[in-house]
Amino acid sequence: MRISGFVLRHYRRFGRYGVVSVGNTAFGQLAFLGLVAGAGLGALEANLLTAAVTGVPVFFVYRSWVWRCEGRARLVREAVPFFVTLIAGVLASSGAVVGVDALLHGALLSRGARIVVLDGAVVAAYGLLWCIRYVVLHRFVFGRFGAVAGSQGAEPGAPGEGVLGEVAAGG
Fold first, then answer.
1. Among 37-41, 119-123, 139-143, 146-150, which stretch is predicted with the lowest mean pLDDT?
2. Which pick of 23, 58, 102, 167 has the fewest CB atoms within 10 Å?
3. Is the dihedral of CA 6, 123, 41, 103 positive or negative?
4. Which segments of the chain does DSSP mark as H helices, in order?
5. 14, 84, 123, 37: CA torsion to nearest 10
């Protein structure tokens, strides 16, 4: 299968994933900026707190609206892998924040400019993982298991193989 076929099969779900991700990012960035600029928290603490607060609601929105899974969430098949991807994102963004913060330590930047650069590091780290996370969530969490368990995890007309199986199979 060509990449264009992949895009056609997943554009609706990927669009919903994008809407949720943009909303979550906007809320998360406002919270991060508020915690750093307003509450005076360190960049690492603000990043961890923001991820902790947004993680649970995003899990349920991804599950119910993006992948159309119904019924009770399954701890081992859905929640644990989802939160592993969340923790990977938090580790990447926290590493970026700590690294950029260390680089900025001696820089002659205003407080506002420093906060904007740190916020950019958070967005860049999450951005790098965004597409990878979609594939992982579709293939291993909601898409494949949702369809197997009888919920509405698959889009109408989309094959049940999952993202990696479709691309790897070449057809």
1. 146-150
2. 102
3. positive
4. 3-33, 43-61, 80-104, 111-136, 143-148, 163-169
5. 130
